[in-house]
Design goal:
single chain, 465 residues, alpha+beta, eight-stranded mixed beta sheet, elongated
């Protein structure tokens, strides 16, 4: 009763449930082994994998593992959905957010959320969406947590059936493709077989092959290039499943290790160019009537510069001495010299670097790899990677050919780039490195690594830019 004697009307107010989204959950204090199962939605018979990962991975670190265990080529956008409604939330790629593709009201980035937040208890689910055009949805379930293993690692345990080909039209398109492939009388049977390639077997799955690719993922994580380097940008465009040899070199390239004797490398890498600029001097060199270096200067270069006296021709004409002509052309390409009123003269940049090995070194690091065409520069990065990793000439050809093919380059007749064409693709960088002595010529090196240690250091530094 109230003070006035009137009865108060009371009602029960229900408790408002507290919604805790996955990203707001606490993270595990320890690092456990998460046993996961992933299955491709709306595909029958099922395509699935069982694999183990550390619980402390962020979702952007889990992404390449999912791509590898499934067998995708990582050539499309992806996203995640965690939690159950009304607590579910979406996690987007950093690129999708930065470029405005994500929903402005739902812009949680995958690199800000850990796996042990979205999957905290066995039985919880995480959705992984890949290629929004084809619409490949995957369901990931946490099957078991093993907190007793001393060093959680990444491994594939089991699976069934091959991953569908990229760009085949999603679950419906894949079902149609399998029907066509299984029906020799179908009018599209031949074209479908040519499109998927002779090696495609829908029922096949090899756990050993998956684990080999997962080991490459570990190499990328532990020995990869500087995140914002140009090499890192190039490698992001290469599906590592298509170029395992390229990525295996990262461990040997030592891109993340402490550098060696940089001052000595600077002196050796810039020796030829600095000598040439000093010889030109402030007055320049008067060229012959035909526009070439005079024979006396050519003879001097052959005598003074390492490796130049190895050229078989005995004439002192520039046209007969390829190393001399190349050094002049590279000095011009690098913006160090120019022709002026019948003379070869230094540019302001060349004058500043003639006596400064450190400044010249920095200029070379910034300009390499060389080439005017995109394919020349991409081949040049692969050349530098093989140099940093200490490969033989034969291995170098194989790696460059594999990398260029994975980047999508083809010859004019539509075939993939072979090991015999790679010299021409990477010629500007290869020739320069051989000219300054950073890399031994292929016909000398053959199947044994013989490149100098300072050349490897030079390549490591270029690849870190």
């Amino acid at each position: 009763m109230t003070a006035s004697g009137k009865r108060r009307h009371l009602s029960v107010v229900p408790d408002v449930p507290v919604i805790v989204r996955p990203s707001e959950r606490p993270r595990r204090r320890d690092v456990a082994s998460y046993h996961l199962r992933i299955e491709l939605d709306d595909v029958s018979p099922a395509i699935w994998r069982q694999f183990v990962v550390p619980s402390n991975l962020r979702l952007h670190e889990l992404h390449p593992i999912v791509q590898t265990v499934m067998g995708w080529q990582d050539s499309h956008l992806h996203s995640w959905v965690g939690g159950e409604p009304p607590a579910s939330e979406r996690y987007e790629m950093r690129e999708s957010i930065d470029e405005g593709f994500a929903d402005e009201d739902d812009e949680l980035c995958e690199d800000a959320v850990r796996l042990d937040q979205v999957l905290a208890e066995p039985g919880e689910l995480l959705s992984y969406q890949y290629d929004f055009g084809d619409g490949w949805d995957h369901t990931i379930v946490l099957e078991r947590i093993d907190a007793d293993e001393p060093a959680p690692t990444v491994a594939c345990l089991a699976g069934a059936r091959a991953c569908p080909p990229e760009d085949c039209g999603g679950p419906g398109g894949y079902a149609d493709l399998l029907t066509v492939l299984a029906t020799p009388s179908h009018p599209g049977h031949h074209d479908a077989g040519a499109w998927v390639g002779p090696g495609f077997a829908p029922e096949s799955f090899g756990v050993d092959a998956v684990n080999r690719n997962l080991r490459i993922e570990i190499v990328i994580r532990d020995h990869g290039p500087v995140t914002d380097s140009k090499l890192a940008e190039l490698l992001r465009r290469i599906p590592h499943q298509a170029a395992p040899h390229v990525f295996s070199l990262l461990e040997h390239a030592r891109l993340t290790e402490r550098r060696g004797d940089i001052p000595a490398a600077q002196e050796l890498a810039t020796l030829h160019l600095r000598w040439f600029l000093q010889r030109i001097g402030s007055d320049g060199i008067t060229l012959t009537q035909a526009g070439y270096l005079p024979p006396a200067v050519v003879a001097e270069m052959r005598q003074e510069l390492p490796g130049f006296d190895d050229w078989p021709a005995t004439s002192n004409r520039e046209t007969d001495q390829r190393p001399v002509h190349l050094l002049r052309e590279y000095a011009k390409t690098l913006g160090l010299v120019r022709k002026y009123k019948g003379k070869l003269v230094r540019t302001n940049l060349g004058t500043a670097m003639a006596d400064n090995a450190t400044q010249m070194w920095r200029h070379l690091l910034d300009r390499l790899p060389l080439g005017t065409e995109q394919i020349e520069r991409e081949a040049g990065y692969l050349v530098l990677l093989t140099l940093a990793a200490g490969t033989s000439s034969d291995e170098r050809r194989d790696v460059i050919a594999e990398g260029l093919a994975a980047l999508g380059w083809q010859t004019s007749d539509g075939t993939i780039v072979g090991r015999e064409e790679v010299f021409w693709m990477g010629r500007p960088t290869i020739t320069f490195l051989e000219l300054i002595g950073a890399m031994v010529e292929g016909w000398v090196q053959r199947d044994q690594p013989m490149d100098p240690e300072w050349g490897r250091l030079f390549a490591q530094m270029v690849l870190s830019m």
